[in-house]
C-alpha cells in the first residue's frame, strides 16, 4: 500500500507557512515497487553512465520528431539524443562531446531546440572556467533536421561571448511577437564585467553575424555584487497586455539576490516591471522564476540548499503599481522539508517539478495559496543523510510534451526517464480557461495565436 500524502505546518524564520509534503524516504527507503504514486506510469528508462553525469533535458514538441536531448554535464561535457519513436523502447541514438574534453574545466548544463526556415536546431550551453580552453564559449549550435539519422547531425557554429567570460549557465529559445527567433542566455560573468542576460537573434547568428547575433542585454538590477548574472530565465507572451516578458532568476549567491520581470517587447529597450527580493526566511538569492500562463502568479526556487520550499508570488500588486518590491509569498510547497527542488514546468493547473532527491513531483497549483502533490515518481532511489548542506542529487531537469502529455526527466545518476500521469494526455491552455502559454513555442506562428482567456 502506498504511503499517503500528508499536510504539515512548519515555521520558517518569521513566516508561518503551509507546506505540502509528498512521502519522504525513510531509513528503509521504499518497499520494492513503491517509489511512485499509482497514477504515474514509467514509459521508458535509458541509463546514461556516470554519477552526476547529466544535467538538463529538452524534448521536441512535434510528435513526428520524437527526440529528447539530455545535457551531459561533465567528463566529458556534451549532449545525447534519445529516440522515443517507440516510447517503451527508447534508444540512445547520438552523442556529442567537446573536443579535448580532459582539458576543459566546467560543464554543459542546458540545451534548447528551435525551428527556423523549416530546419531544426539544437543549442547546447557551455560553462568553461579559466585555466582551460574555451572560457569565452557560450553555446554550440547543431542542425538536427536529419534525425533519426545520426550521420546528418552537424555543428553549424559556436556562440562566443568574450565580454561575459565563463559561458552560459542557462538558455531559453523564444519565438518573439515580432517573429524573430531569440536565444536568451544567462552568463557566468565574474564581478569585473556587467551582469545580465545576453539576447541573440538566431537568424543573424546562422547568417554569420560578426557579433554572433547579439542584439541586446537584459540588465541585472542587483543592489550588491554577485559573481555572475541571472541564474535561470523564462520568456513568455502575456496575452492580456500584448507584451513579451522576461523572467530572470537573480544570482543565488547573495541573500538579497531577487527575481525580476522585464518587458522585452522592444528587445533593445527592456523595461523593468516587477522586482521580487528579500523574502523573510530566505537562505540565499534567486534561482528559477516561472509564471503561470496568465502571468498573474510566479513560482520561485530561491536556492539549491536544503530547507528551501518553492514559493508562490502574486505579481498583481507590483504590476498595478501598488508596491515597489514583492517580498511576501502567498503559498509554499516542498516534497520534503529536509530537501530542495530544482526546476519547474507549468501546465496549468499542474506544475511538474524536478525535485532532486525526491524525483519527479507533480503539483496541483489551481489554488496557489495551497498547492498540493497529486503524483510522483522517485528516480533517485537512494538514502542521503542530511548533513546541513545541499541535497542536489537525483532529478536535475524536467520537460513536458504538450501534444500527448509525455513527461521526461533527467536524473544525474540514473539517466533518462519518461512518464505518463493518468488523465493527463496533453495540454492546451485554452482547455483550462487560460492563454495557451508555456515554455513550448509555436515556431511557425509565434504568439499571435494565443487567445486571451480569463480563468473562471
Structural overview:
The protein is 2% helix and 41% strand. With 456 residues, the chain is an all-beta fold. It has a single domain, classed as Methylamine Dehydrogenase, Chain H (7 Propeller). The longest helix has 5 residues, at 202-206. The protein is globular. The two termini are 37 Å apart.
Sum this structure up briefly.
The chain is an all-beta fold. It is 2% helix and 41% strand. A hairpin with a 5-residue loop joins strand 22 (288-291) and strand 23 (297-301).
Structural key phrases:
disordered N terminus; mainly beta; globular; 456 residues; 2 helices; Methylamine Dehydrogenase, Chain H; 4-stranded antiparallel β-sheet
Task: Give the mean pLDDT.
Answer: 87
Helix content: under 10%
Strand content: 35-45%
Backbone CA Rg = 20 Å
Total DSSP helices: 2
Strand order, largest beta sheet? 3-32-31-30
List strands and helices in order, with pairings.
Elements: E1 6-12, E2 15-21, E3 40-46, E4 54-59, E5 67-72, E6 78-83, E7 91-97, E8 106-107, E9 111-116, E10 119-125, E11 127-128, E12 137-143, E13 154-160, E14 168-175, E15 181-187, E16 196-201, H1 202-206, E17 214-219, E18 233-238, E19 243-249, E20 259-263, E21 271-276, E22 288-291, E23 297-301, E24 310-314, H2 316-319, E25 331-333, E26 343-347, E27 350-354, E28 360-364, E29 372-377, E30 395-401, E31 406-411, E32 415-421
Antiparallel strand pairs: 1-2, 3-32, 4-5, 5-6, 6-7, 8-11, 9-10, 10-12, 12-13, 14-15, 15-16, 16-17, 18-19, 19-20, 20-21, 22-23, 23-24, 24-25, 26-27, 27-28, 28-29, 30-31, 31-32
Amino acid at each position: 500500500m502506498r504511503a499517503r500524502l500528508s499536510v504539515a505546518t512548519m515555521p520558517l524564520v518569521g513566516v508561518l507557512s503551509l507546506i505540502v509534503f509528498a512521502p519522504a524516504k525513510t531509513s528503509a527507503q521504499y518497499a520494492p515497487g513503491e517509489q511512485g504514486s499509482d497514477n504515474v506510469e514509467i514509459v521508458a528508462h535509458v541509463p546514461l553512465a556516470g554519477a552526476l553525469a547529466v544535467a538538463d533535458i529538452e524534448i521536441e514538441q512535434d510528435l513526428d520528431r520524437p527526440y529528447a536531448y539530455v545535457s551531459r554535464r561533465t567528463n566529458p561535457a556534451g549532449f545525447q539524443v534519445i529516440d522515443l519513436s517507440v516510447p517503451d523502447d527508447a534508444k540512445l541514438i547520438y552523442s556529442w562531446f567537446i573536443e579535448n574534453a580532459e582539458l576543459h574545466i566546467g560543464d554543459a548544463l542546458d540545451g534548447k531546440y528551435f525551428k527556423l526556415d523549416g530546419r531544426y536546431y539544437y543549442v547546447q550551453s557551455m560553462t568553461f572556467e579559466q585555466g582551460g580552453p574555451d572560457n569565452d564559449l557560450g553555446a554550440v549550435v547543431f542542425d538536427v533536421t536529419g534525425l533519426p539519422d545520426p550521420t546528418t547531425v552537424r555543428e553549424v557554429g559556436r556562440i562566443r561571448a568574450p565580454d561575459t567570460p565563463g559561458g552560459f549557465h542557462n538558455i531559453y529559445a523564444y519565438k518573439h511577437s515580432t517573429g524573430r527567433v531569440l536565444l536568451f542566455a544567462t552568463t557566468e560573468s565574474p564581478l569585473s564585467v556587467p551582469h545580465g542576460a545576453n539576447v541573440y537573434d538566431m537568424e543573424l547568428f546562422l547568417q554569420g553575424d560578426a557579433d554572433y547575433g547579439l542584439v541586446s542585454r537584459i540588465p541585472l538590477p542587483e543592489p550588491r555584487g554577485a559573481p555572475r548574472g541571472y541564474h535561470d530565465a523564462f520568456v513568455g507572451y502575456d496575452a492580456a497586455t500584448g507584451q513579451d516578458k522576461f523572467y530572470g532568476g537573480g544570482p543565488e549567491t547573495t541573500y538579497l539576490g531577487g527575481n525580476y520581470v522585464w518587458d522585452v517587447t522592444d528587445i533593445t529597450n527592456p523595461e523593468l516591471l516587477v522586482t521580487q527580493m528579500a523574502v523573510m526566511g530566505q537562505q540565499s538569492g534567486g534561482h528559477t522564476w516561472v509564471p503561470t500562463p496568465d502571468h498573474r502568479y510566479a513560482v520561485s526556487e530561491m536556492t539549491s540548499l536544503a530547507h528551501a520550499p518553492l514559493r508562490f508570488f502574486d505579481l498583481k500588486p507590483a504590476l498595478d503599481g501598488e508596491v515597489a518590491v514583492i517580498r511576501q509569498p502567498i503559498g509554499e510547497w516542498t516534497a520534503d522539508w529536509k530537501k530542495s527542488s530544482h526546476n519547474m514546468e507549468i501546465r496549468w493547473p499542474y506544475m511538474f517539478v524536478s525535485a532532486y532527491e525526491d524525483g519527479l513531483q507533480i503539483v496541483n497549483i489551481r489554488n496557489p495559496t495551497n498547492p498540493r502533490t497529486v503524483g510522483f515518481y522517485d528516480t533517485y532511489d537512494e538514502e542521503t543523510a542530511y548533513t546541513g548542506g545541499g541535497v542536489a542529487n537525483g532529478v536535475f531537469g524536467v520537460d513536458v510534451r504538450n501534444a500527448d502529455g509525455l513527461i521526461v526527466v533527467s536524473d544525474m545518476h540514473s539517466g533518462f526517464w519518461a512518464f505518463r500521469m493518468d488523465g493527463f494526455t496533453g495540454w492546451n491552455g485554452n482547455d483550462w480557461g487560460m492563454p495557451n502559454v508555456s515554455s513550448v513555442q509555436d515556431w511557425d506562428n509565434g504568439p499571435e495565436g494565443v487567445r486571451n482567456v480569463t480563468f473562471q
